[in-house]
Amino acid sequence: MIARLAALFTLALVAAFPAAADDVVMPANHAEVVRLPGEASTVVVGNPSIADALVHDGRTLVITARLPGRTNIIALDRVGRVLMSRQLVVTTATDNQIALFRGAERYTLNCGDVCEDVPMVGDEQARTNQLSDQQSDRLDVVSMAMGENSEAPQ
What we know:
With 154 residues, the chain is α+β, with helices and mostly antiparallel strands. The protein folds into two domains: 90 residues, Immunoglobulin-like (Sandwich), CATH 2.60.40.3440; 54 residues, no CATH class. It is 27% helix and 38% strand. The chain has two helices and ten strands; from the N terminus they run H-E-E-E-E-E-E-E-E-E-E-H. Strands 1-7-6-3 form a four-stranded mixed β-sheet. About 5% of the residues have low confidence.
């Protein structure tokens, strides 16, 4: 219940304060490349739960949107000069998504040729945990397979 209220509050804030022309606006679970005017040595994200930023090669910043909301990103060079200071608005990625309600429980689906579960903040917790466990199991299988294949016989 608290997670739903927090998600609704965040969406209300994003809707109440529309993005300005120089804001970076991107959907959740997407990444964007930003070119900087100089070599960055430090990047600060106001709220790391909303987005993450990584300096790729000094002049290239990769921003990854995590959860809907608003935060800021600041990139500094070695002597502390501001190379970039921008607001970041992360929106809900809704292209090809539907919300299925069963009573008070919500399930989010991404639909192409078939519809697949894509757990979102506020979705039914037991199903979200089940999907998360399945994904972890898949990643474990891949890690084990790569570990076995990466060892060359001597």
